[in-house]
Amino acid sequence: MAAWSDLTFDVLEHISSFLPLPDHYRFGAVCKNWRLISKQRRHPPAPQLPWLVLEDDKKTRTRKFYSLSEAKHYSLDIPELHGRYIYGSSHGWLFAIDLKLTGILINPFTRKCYELPPFPVWDEYNATTLIEFGCYTFEEMQTLLVYKAILSHDPKEKSDFTAMIMFGVKNEPAFWRPGDSSWTVIDGLGYSMDDILYYKGNLYLVAACNLLCVVDFECKPKLVEVGIEIPARISVGESTGIQRFLVDFNGQMLLIERTGHSVENYKVITDGFVVIEPNLEQNCYNTWYDIDGYALFLGRNACIHVDSCRLPKCKKNGIYFTHPTESQSPDEFGFHDLGVFDMITNKIMGTFYSVEKVFPQVDSPVWITPNPW
């Protein structure tokens, strides 16, 4: 019987095509031949559940991640992320900001990195001026300056991608493309924005009142209302709509309203979600009561959806959510409101992550789909 180390390269390549990301590295540690196959990286990692990006460990200067599929933590040495706050995730890339309020876009698994220009003026003042006035500390401004960021495309696949952020008190939109020296601010409508989505070549935003807008790029970029009349609140019962998400779900736009209630110390606890599909052609919308067996992962990331049938540990028709808080104490920073909502039973099924108190939680958890090659 042949030894494992003597398996032919074509057999080893076939085996590697079934491996998720962590197993690729374990595979390459077996022997020299297996390591050669692992380094060729001819197959992308097998599908797995998204990871959570957690806190920066100041002692080891590593970034902590949590694999939902394995229920296991990983500490990765990514010097570019040390001391930085994560404010967005899209296509496997992270947006991060340091205490000097400079931003980067980085793939944490390849360490390919883009330096971002200074952020736009915030509420008629730049961030440094507000700090000098004593309104905020650098630590506070680091978490408040940008609410969310997404990408139009994976930078590994399209070099002329667009990065989009929501910044300032009203989460105003702005965009940047490689080669630009500054962010281009999009003229708003005076509403506070909740989410941003790149969908079929257009940039959409949704306001806190469920107002759906699209960016008109002719002349000076500005927001224009989409003519769909959506109630300011699409949920029912005692819960209040506290946040909205826009999702590109297999080519269909979805608008999702998170409902919840307030408790002590200004905390907000999630009660559930309502999912609708805006029909941009007929100017109406339909309510969804399931998502075809898929699962959604919502938070400060560009929404991720996965096919639960391919991932046995994933909750079918489940909405996995994190809480993008900026105001909790260090030991609860966004970790008080994590869970899985079942669209079929219309109930929250509990949490997917037990908070460890070993390290202070100073970053809100953010979903990411590893995109190493």
Automatic annotation (TrEMBL):
KIB1-4 beta-propeller domain sequence ranges: 65-342
Domain F-box: 4-40
UniProt cross-references to Gene3D superfamilies, sorted A to Z: 1.20.1280.50
Pfam families per record: Beta-prop_KIB1-4, F-box
CDD domains according to UniProt: F-box_SF
Protein name: F-box domain-containing protein
Species for this entry: Rhynchospora tenuis
